[in-house]
Write a structure and sequence with these properties.
Keywords: Aminotransferase, Pyridoxal phosphate, Transferase. The protein has 2 domains: 128 residues, Aspartate Aminotransferase, domain 1, CATH 3.90.1150.10; 227 residues, 3-Layer(aba) Sandwich (Aspartate Aminotransferase, domain 2), CATH 3.40.640. The chain is 39% helix and 14% strand. The strands form 4 sheets. Strands 2-10-9-6-5-3-4 form a 7-stranded mixed beta sheet, sandwiched between helices. Bound molecules: ligand T4K.
């Protein structure tokens, strides 16, 4: 156990972890069951193109989301792009900048302009009051993002969309199994998109899904994700290939089998971090509304440099030296990155403020209570002695410069 700043690995102390601790380790579930499913696909010699495993995965995801239609895809980025095409979007799409680059990329890749809206600092999600101000004659849609699984201000966004005749989609990459006002994420807006990337609470190696109660939209998305083929196998319009494979669905189903176990473990970890940091000034674990269901896949802490004397980035270095790899989800924000620096329509002060202080810490089924205790010890030493850590690090940097 580390007792003080001298024990930090950044300053020559022993590393706290022999094996690196990561954010986003996959929730794999029962390996034997996965191989059974894979064997079954191989025995049947049916590997893709809407096979039985993908169909089962779609049914189960639709059930989790409480919607009629689910179209599984190769990843969520492709799913977002399919929505842009299927809904005939053009011009501008309003979205938050505090998101993974894929939300903006999906739109830009198809020649549309993302327009970034500031967030409500209390939730990290887009501030619906500011969305209205960004609507122009070129706007065709709003993309909300349920950041870290915390649902957007759905009702307010639905109103802005309706008032302006805009489509409303949600990037729900983080929000499988979450609820808002007791309603399940999946059924909001015109459609929502889940990600089943390896790092998500349910993974299909890589994967995504579009969920919607709009049967017409679902039909079009289903055709477009399979080269634009109709039921009869005739290409009716220019589509793409964004299908999920049977191997991916085998993983997705197996990971889904373990979904409740993963959530329970994530919740335990989240509560453990909250208890560890309860008394630590300037380090706040981002909270969730306990009346709602969440998957707790992301443990996000806000580091207040004014209070702790240490910046989030240096804390990341401190942790990395101990073999703990945290993540800056999501910093820099999209508009602070090269592809989008020229795309800023209005100031984004709350986005920049939050992006500068958020840090995702390791959680998931592979992270134990003891791991969390040791990660928390490191954070407590570094943030509890922030000014000293910062000045020692600056002196060292100057010496090596
Ligand atoms: N919208 C939002 C809001 C999103 O967050 C994402 C994706 C998307 C859309 C697009 O979804 P997809 O098209 O990917 O389905 C990762 C993921 O690649 C990305 O899917 C995810 N969001 C984003 C939040 O995280 P990176 O650049 O952080 O990945 P990487 O390789 O640095 O890995 C992150 C951590 O996960 C590391 O600590 C290591 C660990 N890891 C990673 C992989 C791939 C594992 O333990 N095992 C693994 O197999 O983007």
């Amino acid at each position: 156990m580390k007792r003080g700043v001298d024990d930090l690995a950044l300053f020559g102390g022993p590393e706290a972890f022999m094996q690196t601790l990561y954010v986003g380790r996959p929730n794999i579930g029962d390996r034997a069951r996965f191989f059974d499913r894979l064997d079954w696909a191989l025995d049947n010699q049916w590997l893709t193109n809407g096979g039985p495993l993908v169909r089962e995965f779609e049914e189960r995801v639709a059930e989790v989301a409480g919607v009629r239609n689910c179209i599984a895809t190769c990843n969520a980025t492709a799913a977002l792009q399919l929505l842009v095409r299927a809904a005939d979007l053009s011009g501008e799409v309003i979205m938050p900048s505090l998101t993974f680059a894929a939300t903006a990329h999906a739109v830009r890749w198809l020649g549309l302009d993302p327009v970034f809206c500031d967030i409500d600092p209390a939730t990290g999600c887009m501030d619906p009051k500011l969305v209205q101000e960004l609507v122009t004659p070129r706007t065709t849609a709003i993309f909300g993002v349920h950041l870290w699984g915390r649902p957007c201000a759905v009702d307010e966004l639905e109103k802005v969309a309706a008032d302006n005749g805009l489509k409303l989609f949600f990037d729900a990459a983080h929000a499988l199994g979450c609820t808002h006002d007791g309603r399940r994420v999946g059924g909001f807006g015109n459609a929502e998109v889940f990600s089943f990337h390896a790092t998500k609470v349910v993974n299909a190696f890589e994967g995504g899904a579009i969920v919607t109660d709009d049967d017409g939209l679902a039909r079009r998305v289903r055709a477009l994700h399979n080269f634009g083929f109709s039921h009869e196998g005739v290409p009716e319009e220019a589509g793409t290939n964004a299908k999920m494979s049977e191997a991916a669905a085998a993983m997705g189903l197996t990971s889904l089998d373990a979904f409740e176990t993963a959530i329970a473990r994530n919740l335990e970890n989240y509560e453990c971090y909250r208890a560890e940091f309860a008394e630590l000034a300037g380090v706040t674990v981002v909270g969730f509304d306990k009346r709602q269901r969440n998957n707790y896949q992301y443990v996000i802490v806000e580091i207040d440099e004014q209070v702790t004397g240490i910046h989030r980035d240096l804390l990341l270095e401190v942790l990395r030296a101990e073999n703990v790899v945290g993540q800056r989800y999501f910093s820099p924000a999209c508009h602070q990155r090269p592809p989008y620096r020229d795309a800023v329509r209005a100031p984004l002060p709350h986005t920049e403020w939050l992006a500068d202080r958020v840090l995702a810490l390791p959680t998931g089924t592979t992270v134990s209570r003891e791991d969390i205790r040791r990660v928390s010890d490191i954070v407590q030493i570094a943030a509890g002695n922030g000014a000293q850590v910062t000045s020692r690090w600056l002196q060292r940097e100057q010496r090596t410069a």
